[in-house]
Amino acid sequence: MIIAIDGPAASGKGTLARRLAQHYGLPHLDTGLLYRAVAASLIGAGRDLHDVEAATSAARGLGMEEFDEARLRGREMGEAASIVAAMPAVRAALIAAQQRFAQRPQGAVLDGRDIGTVICPEADVKIFVTASAETRAQRRALELAARGEKADYATILADIARRDARDSERADAPLKPAADAVRLDTTAMNIETAFAESLRIVEARRR
Question: How many CB atoms within 10 Å of residue 28?
């Protein structure tokens, strides 16, 4: 069984994907970490984030080993990842690795922004998770504060609006729900309620 979870930043898709993977005993891939790792590679090498050739080279050399999530999940790295993720050549370099992960014998759970539309259009279950920009900014602020990072709500809200525009307006694999995806608005839901609803969606599709 392949479960594709898509949605904008801080919508809760990653948490739901991890919970679903654990529930069904499936491997999980947060594809956003791949783009964050590419951005981190450029930053570490002192390269311009807008350097398409350098970004594509970094993507091609990226391994699927464990990532340093503590470093990659910061707000600045998310913004940097959004820049490299808009590059068609970078996305093309990472597609095959994501599709290989999805084709594991037991299946997989993948979350990102183009899983149901590009990476796994044949997925058994597709869920598009969303929430209001204000709710997502509040969640991200709480998440960053819990890690001891600076968390200014207004700045985070502006970042989310900028990333939403960049992700949805890019020419290659824009953020949008697949035609057969089930939309899940988590604005008024806590994680347990959202997880219960996502389980209901998966079980309904399996039947």
Answer: 19
CATH of the domain at 16: 3.40.50.300
**pLDDT 10s digits, 20-33:** 999 999 999 999 99
* Amino acid present at 53: E
Q: Are 6 and 13 in contact (CB under 8 A)?
A: yes
Task: Return phi, psi of residue 137, to 5°.
Answer: -65, -40
Helices (H), the chain: 13-24, 32-44, 52-60, 69-72, 75-85, 88-102, 133-146, 153-169, 191-206
**Cα(154)–Cα(148) distance, integer angstroms:** 18
Q: How many CA atoms lie within 13 A of 92 on its CB side?
A: 8
Q: Summarize pLDDT for 74-128 with one digit per residue, the tens.
A: 778 888 998 999 899 999 999 988 999 999 999 999 999 999 999 999 999 999 9
Structure tokens at 87: 């590059």
Q: Find out whether 144 and 150 touch, Cβ atoms under 8 Å.
A: yes
**DSSP classification of residue 181:** P
Number of domains the chain contains: 1
pTM of the model: 0.88
195 Cβ neighbours under 8 A, 6+ residues apart: 16, 19, 20
